[in-house]
Amino acid sequence: MVARSTIAVSDVFQTADRLSSRLFVLLGLAGLFTVMAVVLDDAAVRLACAVAAGTLVALLVAIRGMGHLARKPQAQLDKAYFSLVGEDAAPCFATNDIGQIVYQNAVAVERFGDRDAATLVSVLKSHFTTPEAVLYRLQNRAGHQGRASEDVVTRRGHLRLSVHKVAQGQFLWRLEEFRDRITTARGGDTLSLPMFVANKAGVVLFCNDAARRLIAGRPKRLEDVFSTDRLHSGEEVTINAADGPLRAILAEVEGPSERREIYLLPVSQRADDRSQMTDFEALPVALMKFAGNGALMAANRAARDVVPLTEGAAPMAHEVFEGLGRPVGDWLADVVEERLPGGSEVLRVHGAAAEAYLQVTLRRIVEFGRPSVLAVLQDATKLKTLEAQFVQSQKMHAIGQLAGGVAHDFNNLLTAISGHCDLLLLRHGREDTDFADLVQISQNANRAAALVSQLLAFSRKQTLKPERLALQDVLSELMHLLNRLVGEKVRLRIAHAPDLGPIRADKRQFEQVIMNLVVNARDAMPHGGTIRVETEALTLTEELHRNRARVPVGDYAVIRVQDSGTGIPEDKLEKIFEPFFTTKRPGEGTGLGLSTVYGIVKQSGGFIFVDSTVGEGTLFSLYFPINEMAEVERTEFVAAPRLTPRNGHGTVLLVEDEAPVRAFASRALRLRGYTVIEADCAEEALRALEDPTVEVDVFVTDVVMPGMDGPSWVKEALVNRPNVRVVFVSGYAEDVLSEEQARIPNSTFLPKPFSLNELTVTVQGALH
């Protein structure tokens, strides 16, 4: 809009010049045609020239007459203007709606000269910057409200511009100058302090003599004066002075019309306040002060207790802290420059003898005009340790979930492999050349199944058959096997505690736990040594908190397996229970031994802890709760009876979402004489049962399937067919069935992978 106003004013002058020149052209043409009408011989041409000359003369008379009529209203306005402001002591101008001056009083003529037909913008252009914007803004406001005024900072002081709308397209301006206002009120050229007046955009509108001498010239913008574009009143700044960088205290006062008045005060040379430093030193909170460049300015006694600092040292921030993920100095600079509000971070103490972490909270402060950063320190070592333990716990849980899922999928694959291998073995005798190859496939499938069972043990999803165990009897039975395992170089010592109560666990799995720990102890002593297996009856009167575990109050049987071998480094203690983690050379172990131990102990309700010292040995401690209750029989599922496989009869509804497993199971059952109805999901099975003519004797169903799971659809089907027997199969443990789902009568559980004989015997037992 400002540019548009300026263009309109210049167009007025161009239009007036063109109109005046055209009037002279018309007058010349009229004279030419008159002369031609007199001197030419041809009567027709003379007549035409006379008519043309008369037309031009008439046009000129009309234009002059219209101009005379147009000047009459302006003359009346001039009289009105004179009566209003003719004797005013301040310069006054009248302009039309495009800014052209149509009247000015005597003071205006004396002050600015006769500017008739000029524009007010051209009059004021030498007094302050961007007069177009100010005049347009005021005229626009007066056009809507009738009047407007604004104070403007000029090179000579302050100027108050007032404008009134006096008629349509007519505005009366009054210019009231205050030359001594800056000098007497807030300073000016006579002020000894350097002073700058700038607008919000940082354009310097005025600077006094002291400021001009300081920087040797008149700056255009504030960034030419100061080394930073962030100016804060009361803070120290660096000035780009003519003689080099100069420090000063900046004082800023808000001026009129959104102007900034900036004064520069000398920097005090006084020493730091000793009483303030005394209070800082005695505070019980760890505090450190850093300069904007990251250099340490001060640290109180509490901070020196947690950060190793030598006397009188002033290290950089990155030499004190580390572990931010980006330079610590950049973080401090962001806070000083107010790009960041501050905040807290947990950082590692650089150069500390032991692992130490501090929560560092930064705040921007200003002391003696200088901005700096105050750091509040809090010990976060325990918090960081707990965080690491939580991360480790989450990692173990995630690995367990992954191991369980992988084991489930592998069990489906192994069921199909071993099952179809069994089908091939039925058609090949021992004399067949392929018989040995098929036996190898079957044996390796069984080895793979054992490996998968170890993964299920770690993920605590294997099938357990818990019973009450007397530890003395179990360990005594294991002695002969354990002595054979340890060899001749290693001695095995077993010590039993008297009156050790029974525990509840799967006997076969518990034996595997002890054997794995003993074998690991043997491997840790390549040059021989002693392995001690001891038991202890322990009563906890208060909770035992160790590592990430919380052992409740109660009676426990503690089994300790200790060796005098090489020990385990501290950085590997947290990883020894992870699957496939091993310190042995390739080919010496799979890394599943301790992960299996961990899973079995946890699934049995126990706890396992390890202590180790490099070069001295390792101690594993197992805590199992004492179980004095009578043996509780599991009534939800009936164990598959030990029967000899034989042909049967009856109808089996087979529900399995894995096509290879379903194909093998259906062929195996048909080979034994059963009629098989196949379904790949629970919904399809329920649709098949909607036909009342379909007779079914036993349901064989997977537990975990997409959509409706096995127990859910079986419960729905048993409403109308209550006498049908059920065989659940799953690659997970039997515990995958919830307590509510497990309350299904006449049901049997068959874990995957299963062989042809195991499947047919289980179905045969369910029917009989």
What does this structure look like?
The chain is α+β, with helices and mostly antiparallel strands and 768 residues long. The protein is 40% helix and 24% strand. The strands form seven sheets. It has a six-stranded antiparallel sheet with strand order 12-11-16-15-14-13, with helices on both faces. A five-stranded antiparallel sheet has the order 2-1-5-4-3, with helices on both faces. A five-stranded antiparallel sheet has the order 7-6-10-9-8, covered by helices on one side. The longest helix is centred in the middle third of the chain and has 46 residues, at 381-426. It is elongated and about 145 Å long. The protein starts with a helix and ends with a helix.
**How many strands, what sense, and barrel or not for the largest sheet?**
6 strands, antiparallel
Query: Which spans have pLDDT < 50 for at least 5 consecutive residues?
Result: 1-17, 180-187, 270-275, 586-591, 630-644
Number of distinct beta strands: 30
Rounded to the nearest angstrom, the distance between the terminal CA atoms is 100 Å
Q: Main sheet: which strands, in order across?
A: 12-11-16-15-14-13
Q: What is the gyration radius calculated from CA atoms?
A: 51 Å
Number of helices: 20
Share of residues in helices: 25-40%
SS-based structural class?
alpha+beta
Q: What overall form do the CA principal axes indicate?
A: elongated
Beta-strand percentage range: 15-25%
Average predicted confidence as pLDDT: 76
